[in-house]
Recover the amino acids of this structure.
């Protein structure tokens, strides 16, 4: 954040600049600055919230190496692991194996090993499996388990933010954003179930509002303060 602030200041693109985490922009875009929580499930994941007193909290979003549970990357990686478990015989047959074969044009699951450890698979390639796994969850038990675990993780992020902001008994919207939620309703159902266990009065909504609108709202708010 410090490096980004220095870069923006040195670029002199504006007289006044504000550097914020992208979760703040997404939150303001979804709630328009009112009390609520946003949960993002795209290539990465995070949850962020604002309570009625204006306090802010965030959970997750630390990158694919240590965090991003419930993200497209997380779902894709879980799918690859389960496919190899099925190939070994440690799990039953699953549609996930077929998804990998078609996606990477391989004959057997173990043909993927060179790509994993020699040429490597990008974050985007792994994340690209997520929509296929989410759609497969309607009929495949292994896919369903993967998506259920991802939805629970995302719900955990929301609940953590709500607890930190003392919102668990309040009525507030939870805006679900990101491509994963557009791939099928099973992830959303699992998310809702986990949230209800801790925040029974929360209302989960889906929104297609772009986070950049949150940045615009914050910029206009800062401009009004400066010109009072």
């Amino acid at each position: 954040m410090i490096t980004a602030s220095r870069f923006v200041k040195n670029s002199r693109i504006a007289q006044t600049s504000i550097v914020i985490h992208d979760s703040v922009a997404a939150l303001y875009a979804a709630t328009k600055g009112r009390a609520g929580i946003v949960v993002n499930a795209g290539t990465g994941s995070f949850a962020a919230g604002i309570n009625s007193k204006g306090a802010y909290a965030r959970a997750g979003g630390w990158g694919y190496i240590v965090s991003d549970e419930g993200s497209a990357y997380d779902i894709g990686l879980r799918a690859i692991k389960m496919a190899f478990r099925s190939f070994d015989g440690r799990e039953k047959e699953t549609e996930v194996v077929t998804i990998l074969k078609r996606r990477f044009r391989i004959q057997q699951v173990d043909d993927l090993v060179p790509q994993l450890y020699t040429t490597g698979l990008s974050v985007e390639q792994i994340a690209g499996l997520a929509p296929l796994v989410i759609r497969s969850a309607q009929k495949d038990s292994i896919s369903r388990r993967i998506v259920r675990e991802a939805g629970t993780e995302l719900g955990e992020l929301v609940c953590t933010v709500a607890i930190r902001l003392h919102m668990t008994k309040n009525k507030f919207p939870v805006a679900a954003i990101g491509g994963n939620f557009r791939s099928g309703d099973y992830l959303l159902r699992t998310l809702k179930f986990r949230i209800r266990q801790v925040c029974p009065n929360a209302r989960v909504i889906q929104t297609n509002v772009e986070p950049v609108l949150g940045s615009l709202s914050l910029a206009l708010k800062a401009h009004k303060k400066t010109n009072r």
